[in-house]
Specification:
Length: 338
């Protein structure tokens, strides 16, 4: 932060940027000016406030036009306004965990599209934390499918990344991680879903464990250990248990905090694998088997057209589309009844 005085105009600009350039009243801006005694901390305080972020998110969801009918929503967005999915999307800021709204939207809608097209299978996540991501994915579960969670929860002495988390000051939230909080969120946002929990390191999980009754996965989220060793193990588990139409989602793919993720992912794609990259979305890489690349690329173009930044960017020996954290979720939710 520079020593230059931060003006009210600076605050308005930052506020409008976060609101996707929607106007805000002077009253709200003046309220923040009064609450921040030090001008140098003003913008930092605004950007870092959970209360502020929730307020922005909820205000951005207020309908800006007459709500569309369900048929119009499906035709326009390719998204079915199912109550469980919509409830979870609207409450994202209040669920503890790290998940960008655009990634939440894209991932959950892809699982919905799978279900609507008859592409069945379980939904698996390694590294569930309090279930923010898995709960949304699981809103698309059908009666014969399971949401499968792999996490060490309270046993953080098994976490190979803990030292790195501590270096960055991010370890306190992990030390508060509980299986009970995960179960509570799953019950709240996908009630009635069949949830199977493996409270252990993914290094101690076998492919057969993740295929109860022989059923493979249609969506497999890899968000566990961020070292090269653990990531390679988890990607092998994902590929071995993935249905032919399934998606693998790799978290923190471009994070400077976790170089082991990009190292392991490139090594995996440079090796002998049938997985292929489909698209980078905010903080994640989506992959599938070759026959379904075009199916998912077409689906992404329909559900997140404003987030597309580039087509066919180079990655390892392949290409993938690149999506950024765009407005598609807000525009979808604004079309719904309040």
């Amino acid at each position: 932060m520079s020593n230059a005085m931060i003006t009210k105009e600076d605050v308005v600009s930052a506020y409008n940027l976060l609101l996707r350039r929607e106007p805000e009243s002077d009253e709200a801006i003046n309220s923040w000016l009064k609450r921040c005694a030090d001008p140098e901390d003003l913008v930092k305080g605004i950007l870092g406030s959970s209360e502020f972020k929730r307020g922005i998110f909820k205000r951005a969801l207020q309908p800006s036009q007459a709500p569309l009918s369900a048929e119009e929503i499906i035709s326009k967005f390719g998204v079915y306004p199912e109550p469980l999915l919509v409830n979870w999307l609207r409450n994202l800021p209040d669920i503890e965990g790290m998940l960008l709204p655009s990634s939440a939207y894209i991932s959950s809608v892809l699982t919905q599209i799978q279900a609507r097209n008859g592409y069945g299978g379980n939904i698996i996540e390694i590294g569930v934390y309090h279930g923010k991501h898995l709960a949304g994915l699981a809103t698309s579960l059908r009666p014969n499918e399971k949401a499968i969670a792999v996490d060490i929860f309270e046993d953080q002495e098994l976490n190979k990344d803990m030292a790195t988390y501590a270096d960055g000051g991010f370890d306190s939230s992990l030390r508060n991680l509980t299986q009970d909080a995960f179960i509570k969120n799953m019950s709240a946002y996908c009630p009635g879903g069949d949830v199977l929990i493996f409270k252990r390191s993914s290094l101690e999980v076998h492919a057969d464990d993740l295929m109860p009754d022989g059923q493979k996965a249609r969506f497999f989220s890899v968000d566990g250990g961020h070292t090269r060793e653990v990531l390679l193990n988890d990607l092998r588990l994902a590929e071995d248990t993935l249905a032919p139409h399934g998606i693998v989602s790799i978290d923190d793919i471009m994070s400077e905090d976790w170089p082991g993720v990009i190292t392991g992912t490139v090594q995996y794609f440079d090796g002998d694998t049938n997985l292929r990259p489909v698209a980078f979305i905010a903080n994640k890489l989506l992959c599938t088997f070759a026959p379904f690349i075009d199916f998912y690329r077409d689906a992404l173009l329909r559900i997140a057209p404003r987030s597309l930044r580039a087509r066919n960017v180079e990655f390892s020996n392949y290409t993938a589309d690149r999506y950024v954290d765009g407005d598609d979720l807000h525009i979808f939710l604004k079309s719904l009844p309040a």
